[in-house]
TrEMBL record, chain A:
<dbReference type="InterPro" id="IPR017871">
    <property type="entry name" value="ABC_transporter-like_CS"/>
</dbReference>
<protein>
    <submittedName>
        <fullName>Amino acid ABC transporter ATP-binding protein</fullName>
    </submittedName>
</protein>
<dbReference type="GO" id="GO:0005524">
    <property type="term" value="F:ATP binding"/>
</dbReference>
<keyword id="KW-0029">Amino-acid transport</keyword>
<keyword id="KW-1003">Cell membrane</keyword>
<keyword id="KW-0472">Membrane</keyword>
<dbReference type="InterPro" id="IPR003593">
    <property type="entry name" value="AAA+_ATPase"/>
</dbReference>
<keyword id="KW-0067">ATP-binding</keyword>
<dbReference type="Pfam" id="PF00005">
    <property type="entry name" value="ABC_tran"/>
</dbReference>
From TrEMBL, chain B:
<feature type="transmembrane region" description="Helical">
    <location>
        <begin position="12"/>
        <end position="31"/>
    </location>
</feature>
<dbReference type="InterPro" id="IPR000515">
    <property type="entry name" value="MetI-like"/>
</dbReference>
<keyword id="KW-0813">Transport</keyword>
<dbReference type="InterPro" id="IPR043429">
    <property type="entry name" value="ArtM/GltK/GlnP/TcyL/YhdX-like"/>
</dbReference>
<feature type="transmembrane region" description="Helical">
    <location>
        <begin position="129"/>
        <end position="148"/>
    </location>
</feature>
<protein>
    <submittedName>
        <fullName>Amino acid ABC transporter permease</fullName>
    </submittedName>
</protein>
<keyword id="KW-1003">Cell membrane</keyword>
<dbReference type="InterPro" id="IPR035906">
    <property type="entry name" value="MetI-like_sf"/>
</dbReference>
<feature type="transmembrane region" description="Helical">
    <location>
        <begin position="61"/>
        <end position="81"/>
    </location>
</feature>
Length: 263, 264
């Protein structure tokens, strides 16, 4: 089990507010009017079947995808305003990808310092210090000189989290951060996310880890077919779902060996 | 008659040896060594073209290659970016340019700039190095553009997305994250391009010029008529091209195997 050292003082927090969000790829409407609220300091898990639009929704929040309609507020920014400084907004929003997307030509430490020095213009020494602090936090303080391809999947994802934290984000987005991992390394990544949540980080997490969602999330949102089908307190949505589609989905996820295929 | 694998392999080897030995024997019997020597290997008569073949010819070959490559690299990068631009007319222009200059022989471009342009626009009398730089640069830019575009697009999209999500502007993500990774991908094909340019710089021989601007092939060709050593001067020039290109190939191969091993 990974040892997670010194849980830090509380984070500065930004909320997210989404109204009437629509997104299409050509004629394929993927998000069909989403309303969603994440309060500062809140942890919200987004669950739903493959292709339901979870990643698209998450990527709209920091505008990696451009919404067709609707409004999104993140912290003090209205990200859908064409005049907003997207780079400035993204400095405050950390993103962790399913495939890690570490920079393979840079060392672990450089992965954590490059945006600090080039974007935030921090002096190199300070950036290194911040990187070290965050690598310590994810239990990889001794791995700074390695290259990403010299690390396991779980370690790479932890570096990706440290890289995002090094920008002092007020909001963290996670897109299935454990889906590409070997089963035995899933736990170490979830442990770090749990500690972040405890420390007060605002988090919007797409995940298939139902026990994590149940334990850590303040709220769970179930999406299907580009709409929010059900949302509420984690224990309610996962423990006692009301909508048939939610029940069906959870049955398949929680007990995949007993799924009946109707023909 | 059916043969086993072993029999067939043995037969194949025997046939190859017979052909090999046969060709060598035929050559040895047929060739008049005296004529051969005075045509290809009359090194004793080469005195007059040294040291200028090296101090002027080799120097100019390297010089023409370098300036053509520099010009081609800048123009090629511009074309690669145009080809990936969101504004369609840029893409059309880049595509047209690339197809045109990849499709015509370099020597035509050289003649156009060496003879056509000065005739059509009296007063434009470019010095020979400029004619070579522009002509060969235009042609190599077409190849370089495609190489660079392929290299940039070979870097996974997740890389620039990660960079952008850390707040990097598009140009910064390009410079700091994408280009360094693309560089390793394009190094071997770029070395190839330099080798092709080294050889293409020989086309400058068709341009009339003063001796100070001759490159190696021009020296070799003039040596054929003036020295009475057969084509020996060209043989020597050819060997000097290999002195440039073979080390380049070796360097490229070394880089290739290094980036294949570490993949970073
Ligand atoms: N760049 C794109 N171009 C076209 N269609 C896309 C693109 N990205 C996503 N889609 C489509 O949008 C739909 C929703 O995709 P999305 O990735 O948001 O689903 P998801 O809920 O994250 O699924 P998963 O659990 O498999 O990750 C899918 O039908 C997908 O094919
Ligand atoms: Mg997804």
């Amino acid at each position: 089990m990974t040892h997670i050292s010194n849980i830090p003082a509380n984070f500065k927090a930004s909320g997210v507010s989404i109204t009437g969000l629509r997104k299409s790829y050509g004629s394929n409407e993927v998000l069909k009017g989403i309303d969603l609220e994440v309060k500062p300091g809140e942890v919200v898990c987004l669950i739903g079947p493959s292709g339901s639009g979870k990643s698209t929704l998450l990527r709209c929040v920091n505008l990696l995808e451009k919404p067709n309609e609707g409004k999104i507020h993140v912290g003090g920014f209205e990200t859908t305003d064409p005049d907003v400084d997207l780079d400035k907004m993204r400095q405050n929003v950390g993103m962790v990808f399913q495939q890690f997307n570490l920079f393979p030509h840079l060392t672990v430490t450089q992965n954590c310092t490059v945006a600090q020095t080039k974007v935030l213009k921090r002096p190199a020494a300070q950036a290194k210090e911040v990187a070290q602090k965050n690598l310590d936090r994810v239990g990889l303080g001794a791995f700074g000189d390695r290259y990403p391809d010299e690390l396991s999947g779980g370690q790479q994802q932890r570096v990706a989290i440290a890289r995002a934290l090094s920008m002092d984000p007020t909001l963290m987005l996670f897109d299935e951060p454990t889906s590409a991992l070997d089963p035995e390394t899933v736990g170490e990544v979830l442990a770090i996310m749990r500690s972040l949540a405890k420390a007060g980080m605002t988090m919007l997490v797409v995940t298939h880890e139902m026990s994590f969602a149940k334990e850590v999330a303040d709220r769970v949102i179930f999406m299907d077919g580009g709409v929010v089908v059900e949302e509420g307190i984690a224990q309610d949505v996962i423990g006692n779902p009301q909508q048939p589609r939610t029940k069906d989905f959870l049955k398949r996820v929680l007990d995949p060996t007993h799924v009946e295929i109707d023909t | 008659m059916a043969m086993t694998t072993r029999q067939r392999a043995r037969l194949s080897k025997i046939v190859q040896i017979i052909i090999f030995v046969g060709v060598i024997v035929a050559v040895l019997l047929k060739v008049d060594w005296k004529i051969l020597g005075s045509t290809f290997f009359a090194f004793d008569k080469l005195g007059p073209i040294f040291p200028e073949l090296i101090t002027v010819g080799l120097k100019n070959t390297l010089y023409y290659t370098a300036i053509s490559f520099a010009f081609g690299l800048v123009l090629g990068l511009l074309l690669a970016l145009m080809k990936m631009a969101s504004f369609a007319p840029y893409r059309w222009f880049a595509t047209g340019f690339i197809e045109f200059f990849r499709g015509i022989p370099a020597i035509l471009v050289l003649i156009t700039f060496g003879y056509g342009i000065p005739t059509a626009f009296p007063g434009t009398n470019w010095p020979q190095p400029v004619v070579v730089m522009v002509s060969l640069g235009l042609v190599s830019a077409a190849y370089i553009a495609e190489t660079l575009r392929a290299g940039l697009q070979a870097v996974p999209k997740g890389q620039s997305e990660a960079a952008r999500s850390l707040g990097m502007p598009a140009w910064r993500a390009m410079v700091t994250i994408v280009i360094p990774q693309a560089f390793k991908i394009v190094l071997p094909p770029m070395t190839n391009e330099v080798i092709l340019l080294t050889k293409d710089s020989s086309l400058a021989f068709i341009l009339g010029a003063s001796m100070a601007q001759y490159e190696m092939t021009k020296f070799g060709r003039d040596g054929i008529t003036s020295l009475g050593a057969g084509i020996t001067p060209l043989i020597v020039a050819g060997a000097l091209y290999l002195v440039i290109t073979v080390p380049l190939s070796l360097i490229a191969r070394k880089f290739e195997s290094r980036s294949a091993r570490t993949k970073r």
